[in-house]
Structures are given as structure tokens and as C-alpha cells.
Amino acid sequence: MPRTKRGLTPPTTKPGFVVVEVVDSVDGGFCLVVDDERVAGCSPALHHNNIRYRWNVRAQDFLRALARATATA
């Protein structure tokens, strides 16, 4: 998989969706990325052997889950 000049995640595939991605980096860390912005975890090495788990999530569902999580924190 060749390196690209864009961020960690591709653009969303449909309007009204956000990309949620977890990257298991070959340098030993995890990070959470939401729409090209790392929100938690290490800064992963840009390496073709990184394991990426990627989901397109409806924005309204994501915001509802986020609101629920911040209300209990």
C-alpha cells in the first residue's frame, strides 16, 4: 500500500457520515482518528504495515453517542 500525501483517513464516502478509525501502529501504539483528526493515543508511524480499522458512521449517531459519553463523564 503506497503512502499518500493526505491525512490518516480517506474522505467520507457519503454526505452525513464521519470516518472513525483506530490505527494499530507498528511502532507499538494505538490511536483514534475521527475525520482526519487524531483525538486520542499515540502518533502512529506512517507505515504500510499499520493495521487500520475503519468505519463510516452516520454523523447523527456519532454525535448522539458522543453526547451520551460526555454526559456520564
What does this protein look like?
A 4-stranded antiparallel β-sheet has the order 3-2-1-4. The longest helix is centred in the last third of the chain and has 14 residues, at 59-72. Strand 2 (30-34) and strand 3 (37-41) form a beta hairpin. It is flat and about 35 Å long. It has one helix spanning 59-72; strands at 17-24, 30-34, 37-41, 51-58. It has one domain. 19% of the residues lie in helices and 36% in strands. By secondary structure, it is α+β, with helices and mostly antiparallel strands. The protein contains 1 helix and 4 strands. The mean pLDDT is 79.
Provide the descriptors you would attach to this structure in a database record.
flat, 4 strands, alpha+beta
